[in-house]
Amino acid sequence: MNKEKIILIGGGGHCRSVIDVIEAEDKFDIAGIIDKQELIGSSVLGYKVIGCDDDLQLLIKDIKNAVITVGHLEDNSLRVSLYKKLKNIGFTLPTIISPLAYVSKHTTIDEGTVIMHQALINANVKIGKNCIINSKALIEHDVTVENHCHISTGSILNGGVIVKSNTFFGSNATSKQYSNISGFVKAGSVFK
Amino acid sequence: MNKEKIILIGGGGHCRSVIDVIEAEDKFDIAGIIDKQELIGSSVLGYKVIGCDDDLQLLIKDIKNAVITVGHLEDNSLRVSLYKKLKNIGFTLPTIISPLAYVSKHTTIDEGTVIMHQALINANVKIGKNCIINSKALIEHDVTVENHCHISTGSILNGGVIVKSNTFFGSNATSKQYSNISGFVKAGSVFK
Amino acid sequence: MNKEKIILIGGGGHCRSVIDVIEAEDKFDIAGIIDKQELIGSSVLGYKVIGCDDDLQLLIKDIKNAVITVGHLEDNSLRVSLYKKLKNIGFTLPTIISPLAYVSKHTTIDEGTVIMHQALINANVKIGKNCIINSKALIEHDVTVENHCHISTGSILNGGVIVKSNTFFGSNATSKQYSNISGFVKAGSVFK
Fold first, then answer.
1. Distance of CA A133 to CAs A14, A100, A116, A119, C152, Å?
2. Which value does ipTM take for this structure?
3. Residue C148 a catalytic site member
4. How many of the other CB atoms lie within 10 Å of CB of A36?
5. Residue A115, min C-alpha distance to chain B (Å)
6. Domains of chain C
7. Chain A, nearest residue to B117 by Cα
8. Which residue has the higher pLDDT, B190 or B73?
C-alpha cells in the first residue's frame, strides 16, 4: 500500500518520540523534517531536515500532511503559531495515534493531536486540536481536554476533569475528579 | 457465539469505564443498567437504565450475572451493601478483566472484582471480592488485596504489600514494599 | 523449538516477577534457581532451588545463560558482585525483555538487563549492563541509563536524562528533562 506522505515540524527530542509513534502506526511515510535554515541536511533518526518554515508553501504541492513535533513545556506559543500557519497554508493535520495507546471508541479526538505510546483515553472523553497526550498518560472517563494542551508523560486526569486550552499538565501529575485545570501544573503534583 | 447477559448496577462515571472494559472483553452482553427509579428509560453510552434495585428479584429470572458499577471514593458502604444484596438474590458476580490488562497466571482474583484497562497484576498476588483495580494500577509480586478495596487509577502497590478490606488507595499513590495498608490513602501520596 | 536453558540467581520477590517475564517471553527454559545452601530443594513458583553460588562452576557445563534475580533497593553491591562472578565463570547474561514492554528499535540495551512488564523505552535511549527496568517504568527519548541501575516500578525518566551507574531511582519517582541523576532517589519524589 502506498502510504501518504507527512512532514514533521521541529526536529528536537519530542520529534524523536513522534517518529517512533509514526513508524509504529505505519500509516504515513515521513518525507522529512522542517527546522532552522542551518540544520537543513542534518538528520533525525535517519530522516533528513529538508527545509525551513519558508519552504512550507512549496512543500505542500507534494506533501499534504503535517504534524507539529515541537515540544510544549512552559510555553506553547510556538506550537499555536505553527498550527495557525500550517492551517493557513492548507496542510491537513491528522490525528496520530500510537498502536500501543488505547483510545475508547466512545471518544473524540480533534485534528493535529498526537496520542503517544501506551497512553490510555477512556470512555466519553473529548480531546481538542493540537494537543500532545504524552507517553503513558491516562485520561479517565468524561474528561474534556481543550485545544493546544500538553498532558505530559505518565500524568493522570481523573474522571470528569476539564482542562482549559493551552494548559501544561506536568509529568506524573494527578488531578482530582471533576476539577477544572488551566495554566501550568508542576510535575508530580496533585491538582484538586 | 451467544454471550451471557449481564446487568450493571449504577449508571455514573465509573459505569462508563466499566462498559468500555466489558465491550473490549467481549464476553458478556450488557442487558441494561440498574439505577434510581427516576432514571429509568435514560441511557449510558447507549445502554438503557432498565430498572431500580426493587426490580432485581424479577430480573434474575432472565439475567444471571451482575457487576457493581458504583464507584468507591471516600466511602464504600454502598458497594458493600449492593454486593450482599446481589449475592442474597442469587446473582453471579463474575470477575471482569480488561484484555488490555495483564494478570499473571500465578495470581488469584475473587468474584465481583473488576480489572480495568492497562492494569498490571504481577506474580503471586491474591485479590479479594468486589474490588476495583482501576486503569493503569500496578500490583506487584506477592501483594494481597482483601475484599471491597479500590486500588485507584495509576497507583502502585509494591512487592509484598497487604491491603486490608475496605481500603481506598488513591490515584497515583505509591506504597513501600511489604507495608500494611488500610483505610483511606490520599491521591499522589507515598505510603510507608 | 528447543529453548535454551537459563538459571536464576536469587529466589526472592524480584525473582517471582522475573519468572513471570521469562515465562511470558517464552525464549528460555528455566532450569532452576541458585540461592542459599539451606534453600536447596525448596521451590519458587514451581521452579526448584538447584544449587548455591559454589555450584555455578559445575552448572555452566550444562547451562550457559544466567539472569540475576536478586533485587536492588538501597544497595546494589550484591548484584554487582554477582555480575562479576557470573562473567568470570563465563555465563552469558542475556537481555530479558517482557513481550508486554515496548522497546523502540532506535534503542540499545546491554547484557544482563531485564525489562519488566509494561515498561516503555522510547527512541534514542541507551541502557547499560545489569539494570532492572521495572514494571511500568517509562524511559523517554534520549535517556542514558548506565550500568547496574534500578529504575523502579512506575517511575518516569523524562527526555534526555542521564542516570549514572549504580543509581536507585525509586518507585513512581519523576525526573525533570535533561537532569543528571545518581545515588538514591526516593519513591514518589520529583528529581530536578
1. 12, 13, 6, 7, 23
2. 0.96
3. no
4. 12
5. 16
6. 4-94 (3.40.50.20), 95-181 (2.160.10.10)
7. A120
8. B190
